[in-house]
Amino acid sequence: MAALAATQDGKQSVHGGKQAPSDRGSAQTDRKMLEARHTMDAPTTTSADNGTSGGGGGWFTPRKKPEPGSEPGTAEGRRPAAIRPVGRHATDPEAPADDTAAPPDATAGSTRTGGREPEGESQDAISAPALASTPPAPTPVTSGVAAATSPRPAPMAFAPAEESITSTAASPASAAAEPRVPAQRPVPASPPGPAASAPAEEASPDAVLVRRAMTEVAPVADKVTSYFYALLFVRHPDLRSLFPAAMDTQRDRLLRALLTAAEHIDNTEVLVDYLQNLGRGHRKYGTRAEHYPAVGECLIGALSKYAAAVWNEEMEAAWVRTYTTISQIMIDAAAADELRAPAWWYAEVVTHDLRTPDVAVVTVRPDQPYPFLAGQYTSVETPWWPRIWRHYSFASAPRSDGLLSFHVKAVPAGWVSNALVHRARPGDIIRLGPPAGTMTVDHTTDSGLLCLGGGTGIAPIKALVEDVAEHGERRPVEVFYGARTDHDLYDIDTMLRLQQTHPWLSVRAIIDQQAHQQLPDAIRAYGPWNEYDAYLSGPPGMIRSGVDALRDIGIPSDRIRHDSVEELVAAGP
Ligand SMILES: NC(=O)C1=CN([C@@H]2O[C@H](COP(=O)(O)OP(=O)(O)OC[C@H]3O[C@@H](n4cnc5c(N)ncnc54)[C@H](O)[C@@H]3O)[C@@H](O)[C@H]2O)C=CC1
C-alpha cells in the first residue's frame, strides 16, 4: 500500500517546468478550474438565523508571531510527514457524520446548496421580470435623474466554510499587479461545461484511476463527504476548531472540489495556479503543513469505503500520488506567502453607511498595509460568526489613506451579510483574508471598458473606474448600472459624480421596472463594442445572460471578464 508523503522531489518531478498555455480544451477546462477555485475556497454555511444572534467572539486574539517550525514557512513545518496508509481495511468510525460534523454549539439552521451565501440567496428570492420583446429602452441617467433617484488542508477544500460572492474569470494580468495575487492568464468566459472534456486517451493512468473512483462515489457524494468529516474529526479532533460550527454546506463543497481537482489532475498549469491560490487562502484558517496528511488519510479512507467496488491498491496509489502532489503545491505556496504577507488582517470599521434598509457601505481600516488591485475581492469574517468567511469586492481602487470599502447587502439567512449591515458599527473589528481575483484592468491596452454592474455588483465596477482614472488614461468607460427599482440604485450619486469628473466615463442606469428589461439586454441598444473589453459583476443570472448578450453582439470570449463564476456553477446551467 502506498504511503502518502509529499516531498520536494515529488513536487518538482510532477510540476517542474510550466508549460505555455495549452489550447487543449482550454476555454472549458480553465474556466472550470477558476470556478472550482471558489468552490473549493468558498464553503457556504448558512442558517436561518440571519446573523442576528449567536456567536460569541473568540477569535479576536492578538496576532501571534509564528513559532519557529510551527508554521508552514519553516523547513520542518513545510514537509508533511507520511501518513499512515488507509484503505478498505482502515478502521471506520461509526460516528454519524452529521453529528460529528455539527458540534453541539452548531446553530440549527437551513442549509443551502448554492454557491454563495447571502447575496445569492436574495437572487433566488426575486422573480426576474420577463424580457421585453420590444426594442430596449435603457434609462440614461443624467444629473437631474440622479437627483431624483438617488437614494485551507485538504487540497480539496479542507477549510472552514467561506462564501464567495465573486470569482473572476478572464482577466489579463495588470502591469501593476501586486505580488500577493498571481495573475491568471486570460480565460474565456464561457459557461461551465463538462469538466472531463479531454478525450479519455489523453488522460494519464493516475487520472483515469482517480476519475474512476470519483464516478463510483458520485451517486453517494453526500455520504462520502459526511464520512470524510466524521473520520477527520474523530481521528483528529484538534482540527475541528479550524472549521465553522455548522458544516452542512461545507460538505457539499468538498466533494465538488474533489471532483473538479480529479478531473483536472492532468492540466498541470491550471491546477498549480489553482492550488497555489488555495494554499495561500488557507493560511487564514490556521491550516498548517502537518494538517495535510491527516486530511489525505481521511479523504482516501472515505473514498475507499464508498468506491469499494472498484477500489484496489493501484487506485489507492494513484490517489496517494495525486493528493501528495496537490498538498505539496498548497504547502509550498502557503510557505512562500508567509514570507511576504500575513495570513489575515484585522480591520476596524471606520464608517458604516446604511444606503437602503438592506445595503450598507462599510469602510474599514486594516491594521497593516493591504495591497490589492481594483476589481479584486477579499474574504471577510465578523466577530459574531467566527470562522465563517464571505467574499466581498473592494468598492474602491487602492486609496492613499489605506481604507477599504465594501458594499454589503443583507439577505435572508445571510449570517455575515446581516451582521455587517445590521450589527457592525464603527469601532468593530473584522478580519480580512488575502486579496484574490483577476477581474482587473489591463493597463497595457487602451481598449474601452464596457462595464455591467448589477445591484451591489456595482462595487468592483466603481473600483475599476477609479483605477482607470488614476492611471490618467483617456480610454472610454461605459457603465451600465442595473437595479430592480430606482430605490435599489444606492450608489448612483457616486457614479454620477465620477461621470461629471471624467469625460471619458458614461454611466447609464437600467431600472428593470422602467425599462421592462434586464441589464444585459440594454447593452444591445448601444455600441458598437468591438473595441471594448467587457466586465460583468452582479447576480449569476445577470452574468450568464450578460455573457450571452456580449457574445451575441460580437465580443470574443477572451475579452469578457466577470465575477460570480461560482454562482454560475451553483445555479446550474
Ligand atoms: N457586494 C459585492 O461586493 C459584490 C456582489 N456581487 C453580487 O451581485 C449580486 C447583487 O445582488 P442584488 O443587489 O440583490 O442584485 P439584484 O438581484 O437586485 O439584480 C441587480 C441587477 O441584475 C439584473 N439581474 C438580476 N438577475 C438577472 C438575470 N437572471 N438575468 C439578467 N439580469 C438579471 C437585474 O435586472 C438588476 O438590474 C449578488 O449576487 C452579489 O453576490 C458581485 C460582485 C461584488
TrEMBL record:
SUPFAM superfamilies: Ferredoxin reductase-like, C-terminal NADP-linked domain (SSF52343), Globin-like (SSF46458), Riboflavin synthase domain-like (SSF63380). Its cofactor is heme b; FAD. It comes from the Bacteria. It catalyses: 2 nitric oxide + NADH + 2 O2 = 2 nitrate + NAD(+) + H(+); 2 nitric oxide + NADPH + 2 O2 = 2 nitrate + NADP(+) + H(+). Keywords: 2Fe-2S, Iron, Iron-sulfur, Metal-binding, NAD, NADP. Coiled coil: none annotated. Its EC number is 1.14.12.17. Residues 98-108, 125-150, 159-187 have a biased composition (Low complexity). Residues 201-335 form the Globin domain. CDD domains: Mb-like_oxidoreductase, O2ase_reductase_like. Residues 342-442 form the FAD-binding FR-type domain. Residues 1-202 are annotated as: Disordered. Residues 29-40 have a biased composition (Basic and acidic residues). In the C-terminal section; belongs to the flavoprotein pyridine nucleotide cytochrome reductase family. This is nitric oxide dioxygenase.
